[in-house]
Amino acid sequence: MALLFTTLGRKSQVWRTMFLYPLMIAPIVAGLLWKFLMIDNFGLLGTLLSQAGILQNPNQIGWLSNPDIVLFSVAVPDIWLTTSFMCLVLFAGLQNIPGDLIEAARLDGARAPSLLFRIILPLLRPVIAVALVVRGIDAARAFDTILIQTNGGPQSASETMSLLIYRTMIRFGDPGLASAMGTIYLLAMLAIAFVAVTTIWRPGKDT
């Protein structure tokens, strides 16, 4: 989407504004919205797929009740909420790539795949590294939408680490264990972020 917006230029202003609307929605509201879309028995998604003839009945797929797919189902609202932010970050990074460099490569006969993988992506490495770290940490602390949709169920299949720490502290009343889990979780996230930055952050270098 960021590449498409860059290609369209000023023509993409209206589409960019519409694309950023999910950023204005609170995670709890998004969780409720997607819960009503996916919930069993009267979920809108199952009903529409059934009416379209894709499913035999609206309850054929237990989006929020099947332990095998519930983690993917609760990931959808989080992806929907943050995709526009990631697009905005990458779009801003694309604006900083010199246009004369792209034009010179085109004059030399470079085609779209070569422009993307040999020029654009190498120059975009710092932005991609920051975006991945920010988005990774944001996804790792997913809490609101999952708590509203499934509360970590069924069978703890959608329970994330942040939700487990919350339950350990609030429900089980064990602040010591919850604090230790939070500290280890923080160190793990810092280690992953360090590896991601050192691996990807090589501006201007080709793969």
Structure, explained:
With 207 residues, this protein is mainly α. The chain has a single domain, classed as MetI-like fold (Orthogonal Bundle), CATH 1.10.3720. It has 11 helices and no strands. Helix 3 packs across helix 5 and helix 8 runs antiparallel to helix 11. The protein is globular and about 65 Å long. The model has no long low-confidence stretch (mean pLDDT 86).
Total number of distinct structural domains: 1
Q: What's the main sheet like? A: none
Q: Counting H and I runs of at least 4 residues, what is the number of helices?
A: 11
The ordered string of helix (H) and strand (E) elements is: HHHHHHHHHHH
CATH superfamily: MetI-like
Strand content: under 5%
Write down the overall geometry: globular
> Rg to the nearest angstrom?
21 Å
CATH topology: MetI-like fold
Classify the secondary structure makeup into a structural class: mainly alpha
CATH architectural designation: Orthogonal Bundle
Average pLDDT for all residues = 86
- What is the CATH class? Mainly Alpha
CA-CA gap between termini:
23 Å
Which segments are poorly predicted (pLDDT under 50) over 5 or more consecutive residues? none
How much helix, percentage-wise, in residues?
55-70%
The number of distinct β-strands equals: 0
